[in-house]
Amino acid sequence: MTFAQFSRQAGLSRGDICREILASHRESIKAKKEATAVKNLELIFDATLALANQKGFQAMTVRDLSRATGLSMGALYDYFTSKEELLEMVLSTGRRVVMRLLEKGLQEAEGPVEQLRSAIRTHLFLSEAMQPFFFFAYMEARHLGEEQKERAKQSELATERLLAEIIQRGVKAGLMATADHQMAAALIKAMLQDWYLKRWKYAKRRLSVDRYAGFVEQAALALCLAPGLPSPCGETSKS
Amino acid sequence: MTFAQFSRQAGLSRGDICREILASHRESIKAKKEATAVKNLELIFDATLALANQKGFQAMTVRDLSRATGLSMGALYDYFTSKEELLEMVLSTGRRVVMRLLEKGLQEAEGPVEQLRSAIRTHLFLSEAMQPFFFFAYMEARHLGEEQKERAKQSELATERLLAEIIQRGVKAGLMATADHQMAAALIKAMLQDWYLKRWKYAKRRLSVDRYAGFVEQAALALCLAPGLPSPCGETSKS
DNA sequence: GTCTATATACGGATAGAC
DNA sequence: GTCTATCCGTATATAGAC
Q: Which domain range does residue B181 map to?
């Protein structure tokens, strides 16, 4: 699977996402006509991610948002009741879309090695297609209220667990060998996240997601398939 | 080298750092007696990192800082002339201390493999000893002015280059084999950073830096020493 | 459904007492 | 050297015209 193939079948256009926002916040959004509501929500969604990723959500003012979308202050407040609700709106909808696609993408591969490959690619392609959202969710997580912060942590642990379970099955099947499957999963996850966190670096090098995915696959397999690893307890050699 | 050994020899107490802040900002700090100045700078330094890491530097108000340090608004402004200068003060001093220790720590190892090990441990131990600072510098980097942001990126690239050069020497010496030493360095760096970015996760698992360092060393060597890697250009198998 | 104008609050920074 | 009191700008949110 390449990113081009993934994009075609995923169907996660801005329109789809904003229709989902509208559906799940029907009561608090004043606009009645779906067409205009979705059009304005797209403006708001895009501008919020762009501005917040540049200067931080809390530094971004509603006036900035007004300037960027072309909507007035009053019009904006017809789509959310407070700046905090705007944050919640973007995060909760984004998380729902991501979860749905992650689960869908992982049911097709067979065998631990192919599943690990598939998980890596799906995660990378998803974060490529929705890079502004992934970056936003990562960076703003700690500014959330306790309940929402807990949800963010659970989301991190859930994807780690998904990787760990694949590796565990690989070890049981005798196809993989690693001292600690949870730790292997954590390290792989760190490599996956670097792709959307250091966008500027990889963009400057004109590195495609497909190539990056190839490297991470290699690294993950080197880590999980490597034979005869010493138990990693503090010192691993004279060092 | 273990973290305990590193801590003993490094000598990067809060006092040392704040004496350095004082020295490099002597003109703008109104307090004359070194003892009181350093004492208050320690309060300010600690509280700034704690508050900013919890809610973000820009969301942290000077009034919050006043409450946390026990100093009044007026007193605080005797130590910096603006909130922005406070940010610059913390970041520039921290970066200087980190750079000094990184370079010092790397002159002792011999041979590419030992150097790679040493670089990994030094980086991890440093980020452990100064975790609040590392987290702060990472998270606040994008809120800086253009010049400061450029410095932050250069700092990222510099440590990556350091790793890449070790690996390149290893390949030349026939001790390592990797398709792309820069990419290998980037992935290792991502694993190093996860330690201070996901503190909550590893703390909950009661994982020590020494154990984490062992895992990353293993992963790095698996990645660099692995024999017969296929060239990672997009597809690496039927997949 | 969208706009302008404004109420209200809060944050950064400073002046001047002690 | 530290404090209290205050100025001034700006941000969120709303009321009411069009």
A: 106-226
